[in-house]
Amino acid sequence: MNPTRIGSLDFDDIKLSIKNYLANQTEFTDYNFEGAAISQLLNVLAYNSHYDSLSANFLVNEVFLDTAVKRSGVVSRAKELGYTPRSRRAATVQLTVTFTNVTGAAGISALTMPAGTRFTSIIGEALATFTTISTVIVPRFFENSQYVYRVSLTAYEGILSQETITYNSIDKTVSISNADIDTSTLKVEVNEAGIWVEYVKPSTLLTVGPTDKVYMIQEGFDGFEIYFGDGIFGNEPANASQIRFTYVVTSGIGNGALNFTLVSQIDNTVGATSVVLATTQSNGAALLEDVESVRFNALNQYGTQNRAVIASDYAALTKTNFGFVHDAFAWDGSSNSPPKFGKVMLCIQPTIGDILTNSQKNIVSTFLESKAVANTKIEFVDPEYVQIKVSTIVRYDTTLLNVGIFELEFIVKSAIAAYARSTIQKFKGIFRSSNLARAIDSSNYAIISNLSGISLIKDVTPNIFSKNNIRFTYSNEMVKSSFISSVFFVSDLAERMQLKDDGNGKINMIYYSNGVAIVHKANIGSIDYISGTVQIDNLELISLEGLQLTFEAKPLNQDIKPTNNIILNLAQENIDVQTLADY
Predict the structure, then answer these.
(1) How far apart are CA 345 and CA 64, in angstroms?
(2) What CA–CA distance (Å, rounded) separates 480 from 488?
(3) 25 exposure class (CB count in 10 Å sphere: 0-12, 13-18, 19+)
(4) If I label 480, which of 41, 270, 277, 438 is the partner at 20 to 30 A Cα–Cα?
(5) Which helix (H) or strand (E) holds 98?
C-alpha cells in the first residue's frame, strides 16, 4: 500500500494517508495514532510533504507561459519566443520654439539647442518635465523687420540621463541601472580606441554580419540588460571597453500636456524672449508592460515572426510596438464592404482619445511597411463606438442583507462596470447577458436574482443649421419599433422633435401631442433590422436637448457581438439599478 495518494496536495489528506499506511503495518497494530507524540510527528511529515508538493507545483507552473505567475517566469518564457516586453514609454509632443530679441546672437545664422534641453508643463496639478534627446539646430529667419530663430522639435516626458559601464566579456550582459527608462530612446556607444562608436539595435539578425555594430536588449530580474554579438552575429566589444548609455527616464504617465515653458538656458539667448507652442497635447505614454500583456503579445508576435504577411500580423505588430495603442484589429481588404483589393484595413484604438492622430498613423504606417513582405498597402479605419445601456431589477433577501440599499445598488453597479472592463471596450469584445447576470448575482450574497435588459446607444455630434447625412451601424439584429432618438429642435415647428422607426424599416421625424405621436416628416431615413445599419438623410436642426444626438434601440438578442471596427462601451451613467426586497 502506498503511504500517500499521488497528486493530493491537501494537508489533511496527506496526514490521513500516512496514518492509514502505518495502521496497516504489523508493528503498529492497535496503536493510538491520536496520541500527542505520534500525532505531532504525523503533522510534521504531512506538513513537509504538503510544502514540497506545493513548491513542486508552483515551480512547474513557472515553466510554461500559460501558467506562469511571477513576472520573471512569464518574461523568461516570452524570451524563448523572441519577445522583449515593452518598457515604459515617454509621452511625446511636437513643439515649435521661437526666439525673438536675440541680441547676443548678432551675426549668428543659427542657434544650437543641445540634447537634454528641458521644457515644463502642468498636467493636472503636477509639474511635468519634457526633454530633447538630440542636438537641435535653430535656424534664423527675417520676419517683421527683425531676426527670429525658430525650429520644430520632438520633446519626451522625462529626464535625459547618461551612464558609463565597463564591459566584461565573461558576463556578456550589461545591466542598465535605471529600471524606468524608455528603451525606444536608448543610445548605446562603445569606446573603441578613444572614439565613441554607436551600436544600433537590428530589426532582424538575418542581415547581421560578424563585424556589424549591433546590440540586443532583454528584460532581466532588475531591469533591462544589453548584450552584444558573438563574432558571428554582430561584433563583440573588447574586454574592459567602456559602454555609454544615453536614455530618457520617464514616469510613463505624461499624456495631456499642452502649454510649455522653456526652462533650459540656450547659449546666446540671454535676455531673449522664447515662445513655445505645441501642435497637440502630449500623448503616447505607457507604463511597463504588465504580465498578462506580455503573455498575450509574446504568442502573437511569435506567430508573426517579425513580419507582416496576413492581416492579423499587422494588428499583432501594432499592439506590441507602440505605447499609444490600446488595441488593434485588421482585416483583409478583399473581405471589406466594398472590397479593397491589395490593402489591409487597420483599425486602432488609442490609449488616449477615440482615434489616432494623423502623425501617429504615419508612424504606424512607416513601421508596418518596413515589415511587409509584399506590396500591400495599409488603409486606416477609425474605430466606431457603440454604447450599451443596462437596466436591471435586483431582488434580495432582507434577512441576509448586511449593507444599506444605496450601498447595494453601488455594489451592483460596480460589478456591472467590472464585467464590462474585462470583456468589452476592445475589438471583438462580446457582451454576454448570461455572464452579466452571474456577475450581478455573485456581487453580494443577499442577492437572490436579477432581471436585466439592454439597449444600444449611438452618439452623434451633428452640425447645427446644416443638413446632416448620418450613417452608422449597431452591427447586431435590432427589435422593430424600438429605435428612438434624443430630443432636438427644428426651425419650422417649435416642438420637441425625435426620430423613430415605424416597424417597417422607415424612420420618421415625430413629436408628441397629448401623448400621441405626430409625424412631422415621414421617411427621413431607414434602418435595416437585420444588420442594424441606420441611414438618415438631410437632417437639419437648430439645437439639441443635450450635448449630442443619441440614437437608442433594443437588440433582438441579448448577446452583443461587434464587427470589424466597432467597439462596445458601457459608461457608468448608462447603468440603471433597481432593488426589490424579496420577503
Answers:
(1) 34
(2) 22
(3) exposed
(4) 438
(5) strand 92-100
d(CA 252, CA 238): 35
| pLDDT tens string 432-459 | 999 999 999 999 999 999 999 999 999 9
Buried-exposed string 444-456: b where 16+ CB fall within 10 A, e elsewhere: bebbeebebebbb
Alpha-carbon 169 to chain mean position: 39
Rounded Cα distance, 513 and 37, in Å: 90
Is residue 231 a contact partner of residue 259, using CB atoms and an 8 Å limit?
no
Beta bridge partners of 452: 392
Residue written as grid cell 436637448: 545
Give the containing element (helix H, strand E) for 226.
strand 224-228
What residues have CB less than 8 Å from 265, skipping those under 6 apart? none
Helix axes 71-80, 291-304, angle to 10 degrees: 0
By CB atoms closer than 10 A (0-12, 13-18, 19+), residue 556 is: middle
* Assigned C-alpha cell, 121: 508643463
Q: Which residues contact 566 (CB under 8 A, 6 or more apart)?
A: 383, 384, 385, 386, 473, 475
What 3-state DSSP class applies to 127? strand
What is the domain class of 305-382 according to CATH? alpha beta
- The grid cell for 208 is 547581421
Phi, psi of 93 (to 5 degrees): -150, 140
What does the angle CA 478 – CA 331 – CA 562 come to, to the nearest 5 degrees? 20
Q: Return d(Cα 325, Cα 323) in angstroms, integer.
A: 5
Q: Note whether 318 and 348 are within 8 A (CB).
A: yes
CA pair distance 313, 315, nearest whole angstrom = 5
Separation of alpha carbons 300 and 409, rounded Å: 40
Q: Report yes or no: 576 and 515 within 8 Å, Cβ to Cβ.
A: no
Domains of the chain: which residue ranges? 11-61, 92-158+253-278, 160-249, 305-382, 385-583
Report the predicted TM-score, pTM, of the whole model to 2 decimal places: 0.65
Tell me the pairing of strands 566-569 and 261-262.
unpaired
- Residue identified by cell 435595416 is 528
How crowded is residue 135: how many other Cβ atoms within 10 Å of its Cβ?
11
